[in-house]
Fold this protein.
Amino acid sequence: MAPSDPVVADPAADPAADMPADWAALWEALLRARAVPSAAAGPAGPCSPASAAWLELYKPLLDARQAPGGSDARPWVLAQLGQSLDGCVATSAGDSYFVTGAHSLLHLHRLRALCDAVLVGAGTVAVDNPQLTTRRVPGPHPVRVVLDPAARLDGSARLLRDGAAPTLWLCDSRHAAAARERLAAASAEVLAVDGLLDAAEPARGPDLARAFAALATRGLRVMLVEGGGVTVSRCLEAGLLDRLHLVIAPVIIGTGRRGLQHPGPARMADCLRPPTRRLALGEDMLWDLDLRGPTGFATTPG
């Protein structure tokens, strides 16, 4: 994400104008199903082929709400990442304004509206200062979660202070007091998690399973991991993603900041080859990866 949305100078370039005529009614049905999981996640009758493709893309988020699970269950997690043809999310100087286009941004706002929470890493907040709201589409704002295990942020980020949506600053319990002190009268809440960082080896990164479990106890069942590349890659490596929306933009950045990274196996035969579908988002191409399908992750992590 970047500091603000792109300006669409030509009304004809508005991505909403490319949607089929029956999309507005279908989106309302999806929002109803989000609010009431027993509601039908789709139209009462047939819809256009274009709207059917969008329904197929978003329906897994609604199906996840109907899956059994209590407050201690792991959230169902979708990650979304936009990157260049050569796998970068920004230039070497950190400029990401914008890798993907307006159609992809609109899709991202829809994902937020269908999820309980949207999570980003501290690096994304420090560089992009995002809002993480659904201001481009009808629908509720998700709970905004900042993953900052060592409480490195200074507390001035706008999502910690604007009060636009409930916001959690997620950190290791050893750093919670410092985070609360920086927030002062801000509207965000510090969520302290014991053992989020290994005291002996903090460089290993956060225990994401503990982080997600803490969010599940808040009733956050369906979660979007929006960035950045490091956070999404760590979630993938930990086997915590159920689905991945990887958006590829027709741009070559060169020596830039890397997007999705995964150590992977030594043998090509052992690589992840999850079921996929593709959908054009303007000039970008969305790859929808079902990481729990055949040849995806073999097991659900504990």
Notes: The first helix runs from residue 23 to 35. The first strand starts at residue 76 and ends at 84. The chain has two domains: 18-66, 67-263+272-290.
